[in-house]
Amino acid sequence: MPLPPTPKRTRILTILAAFGFLALLAAGPLNESGTIEKLFALALILDCVALIAFLSRRFAFALIAPSVIFGGLLIAGALKFHYLTTPLLAPDLVYFLNRDLLEVAQHYPSIMFALAGGAILIPGLLIAAWWLDRPRLFATMPPSSRRWLRVVGALAAIALLFAIDSPTGPFAAVFGKGMWATMNDRSYIVDFFTSFHQTEIRIPPVAADADPSVVWAQSATDNPPVCSGRACTATNKTGTAQEHPDIVAILEESTFDPTMLKVCTLPAVCKRKMFEADGRTRAHGPLTVHVWGGGTWTSEFALLTGMNHATFGDAGLYAPYNLAPRVTHSLPDDLHAAGYRVIAIYPMSGDFINARNAYKFYGFDKFYDGQDYGLSWESSDSDLMQVFDRIYAQEKKTIGKQPLFVMMLTLRQHGPHMTPLKTLPPPYDKPLFAGKFKPQDLDDWINLNLGNYLYRLSMSDTAIAHIEKTLLDGNRPALLFHFGDHQPSFDGAIREIPKSVPASVPDPNFITYYMLKTNYKPARTYAYPALDLSFAGALILDIAGIKKDDFFQANALLRERCQGAYLDCKDKRLLDSYSNYIFHHIRALHD
User: What domains can you pick out in the chain, each with its CATH number?
Assistant: First the structure.
């Protein structure tokens, strides 16, 4: 039976669908990083076209649906890579597709536009394509034969889809490129679909070539010397001695020492006291962090657990969800053993990235939700310090001579850094670096972002000076540790600014700062070319004179033996020995 003439609207829709599908192929499969990646993405898309064609019998719709869905994944992947330098992965749909994403998007117009556009355009286009197209495929076949063909064809397409997206299938090579390659290339389709398998937590396997002679348990003489007696105690107003210092750790959001930028030589705006050592400084310098432009929660994980989230593959990016419940050793655990009360002051809702639950797993006694104290995205560091003053005074009044550990996060330095310069106070109300640094002048965009950053940094500097005075001028022994969790993104532009970092640093984009001060004199100070954030917890324990458990003893030994380097330690056999010890002997993560 001959087919009736194709309606004009269907012909037009088919032509548009073909152009859209060709655009998808150009932006997607043909733009993947390697030949095998290109073939993998092409096979996925073509198989989806076949599956939808068998299910719907609509040819134009079978072209449009993959174009819209895969196109949306491409846009989302490009946006995530632009802001966080990591591609869109399958767990993002579980962990981050919630109201927290909407709160973040309010501050990034491009993300908000993409979300709003996707929410309207994707279902709208699919509905319109379905309505305008007609089920004309296989129309000349008898109904019974057509049904069997559709069932067999759909089942075959589904089976092929699973085979394509299988680590043991014909494209096994794309699953074997490793976590680092996945996180740093721009193969958005490949990265998303392989991540269904790659984001399982992977404990490093036993390394066969590890140095078997290395001992990771510290003896009494091997322990770093710590403060004792009057050097580590002070008398409070009740006349009773506090045995250990109060400890305050401040995660300074998106903060680094701007003198690291070769162009930032203006003393009035580039040099800040919060980065300068003085008589109370016990350790300071460049800090190696594990994320760039975002991912603060992984820096929290590194400080509190002594581990680098990248060790566990792509799944490590979701540490507050999948790693925190499995941690067996944490900084709060050692503090509890020494008699500490451990609290957190969070600048956002505790529901953000599962923070409240994660901090409970890390071992915190109390979680202070920022929203309960009027804190928000726009809250300055000074606003947070006012909240700190209230909570710290209240806690110390309640617990008396019991030592207190406070983990506090700031937020104001988070991007975007796009407030018009003319609205900022002098000298930030105009481009600070325009036309002054030949031959590489900083463009308007970098001047805008850097001007905003330096203005907010001036407020951070004031806030740090306040908390130094509160803690270190007080009548209790105190330790203050503050650090940058990652560099800001400036929408990727910060990568274009030349940086001065130690020669041992493999990537200048993963360097911030740390500063540790006390109002008592410990037996020694510490200095490293660059300190990995994973070692900061044990360093705090050492300078506070607190006994370390097996994990942090080993952590401190690796810190000294590798001079502050962790995964980039030059002695790979030593590093393998450490990995074997913490993961397969003392089991840093449980099942």
Answer: 8-198 (no CATH), 241-585 (3.40.720.10)
